[in-house]
Design a protein that fits this description.
Order of helices and strands: HHEHEEHEEHHEE
CATH superfamily of the largest domain: Histidine kinase-like ATPase, C-terminal domain
Number of strands: 7
Number of domains: 2
Oligomer: single chain
CATH class of the largest domain: Alpha Beta
Number of helices: 6
Strand content: 15-25%
Structural class: alpha+beta
Strand order of the largest sheet: 2-4-5-7-6
Shape: globular
Largest sheet: 5 strands, mixed
CATH architecture of the largest domain: 2-Layer Sandwich
């Protein structure tokens, strides 16, 4: 099967299958480690990790629903609130290596289901983190900007990581394309496909060894 004929349902099923097993294994091992833990701070850390793993499991369940190709309801998602809910997990995990900066004009709602917006944002942030960790900058930086333009919401995630050459930029959102040793090539394809189903779009830009910017736009909700 070639890239053109590959369907979103097949990608969703592959992605969910790839994540489900290591996710379950991680949760089991964290529960085992927690049993012998007496330190309150460590217990709190274990609980924080389990909360985030649970969120990932929920996202995987939501992604598998795409395989049914059901009509998507345009729910209302508060963008600022959702970003501020997602970011702490990244800050906790990578604060020693990466500075996270946000520029958000105001709270505005996007016409998209909340869980689908989380899938999109998590995919983009995960790629940005990996790009920064692969780069040579001692001070990693990821900047998240949110602006409004008439009836659309513009969100950009900029990093100072390894960047992309022209070939990578051209193929970044194609299924199964990846430059990572253990990458699946699914994340940005699923992101772009979800955005398209909500009337949104995505643009990837950047320079090799300088950094990368992923820009997405979504219809704003007036509800």
């Amino acid at each position: 099967m070639n890239d053109v004929s590959l369907s979103l349902s097949e990608m969703a099923a592959t992605f969910a299958h790839e994540v489900r097993n290591p996710l379950a294994l991680a949760m089991v091992n964290i529960n085992i480690l927690e049993l012998g833990c007496k330190n309150e701070e460590d217990v709190n850390r274990f609980n924080a990790v389990k909360r985030e793993l649970t969120k990932i499991a929920e996202l995987m369940m939501e992604l598998t629903e795409l395989a049914a190709d059901k009509p998507l309801r345009k729910n209302v998602t508060p963008v600022k609130e959702t970003i501020e809910d997602i970011l702490p997990a990244y800050i906790t995990a990578y604060s020693r290596e990466i500075e996270f900066i946000t520029y958000i004009e105001k709270e505005i709602s996007a016409a998209i289901q909340p869980k689908h917006f989380r899938i999109i944002l998590n995919n983009i942030l995960k790629n940005a983190v990996e790009a920064v960790k692969a780069g040579s900058n001692k001070h990693g930086k990821i900047i998240i900007s949110v602006k409004t333009n008439t009836d659309r919401i513009l969100i950009s995630v900029q990093d100072n990581g390894i960047g992309m050459d022209d070939d990578t930029k051209e193929n970044a959102a194609k299924p199964y394309f990846t430059t990572k040793e253990n990458g699946s090539g699914i994340g940005l394809f699923a992101t772009g496909s979800l955005l398209n189903r909500y009337g949104g779009d995505m643009k990837v830009s950047g320079e090799l060894f300088i950094g990368c910017t992923v820009e997405i736009s979504l219809p704003s909700s007036r509800v």
